[in-house]
Amino acid sequence: MTTTSSPWAHALATSVALIAWTWASEASAAVVTSGCASANQFCTVEELVGGANMLINDKFFDHWTVDDASTVAPVDLSRITVMPLDDQVLNPGLAFLANGALITGGFDQIDLDLAFRVSVVGGAPRIVGSSLELTAYEFSAGNAGGLIAVASDLLAANGTDILGEQEVFAMLSLDAVLFDSIVYASQAAVLVETNILVTGDDTLDTVALNSFTQRFSQRALQVPEPPVAPILGLALLGLWRRRRHSPR
Predict the structure, then answer these.
(1) Alpha helices, DSSP H only, in 154-230?
(2) Which is it for the CA torsion 142, 110, 169, 42, positive or negative?
(3) pTM (predicted TM-score)
């Protein structure tokens, strides 16, 4: 018995095939990790500092180091999870989930420097911009104050040419700056130096950074106008930046 399909059925099949092809062309590549217990899913900062690395789409993240200048016990790097962000093909990145490792009380400070390299692989388009976002944090009820800040310096592969700086922060009584992005001349590799500061303003304060993200784009970013932040907040952040760049 011979069957024939109607023009409508043929059109529907063609549409489905086109949608499937389009989706496949937009889908992100697989995440590949090396040296991490959760293979091809995520890594801990401890694993990355120990020599592990991560490939997300066509960007390679390696050469991880940490400098812990906290006034409390050393941060437990095994608890900080680094999740791959492969949902945007030309704008992949990392989500840092603290899992309770970045919480402090009173006047104690968590002061952690993370450094790593991100580079494109094969003939992929070069990196032309970066973004930083503060995604989750907490000030406990009854806090007198507190500061949560993440600042990132982007350098060229030679380690000396500064491509730009990004800063996000939250303070208990002032408006937060949650997102910052920069653009720069195209780079095959970028060195990233990110500082994390978490501190209270009173003996009873409890402050926690829960998560933040960093992305590295291969397409031009539209950098927003600088947010209108409180003068006091910017002044405090400036003092903090001068402190972290001064000799210890």
Answers:
(1) none
(2) negative
(3) 0.81
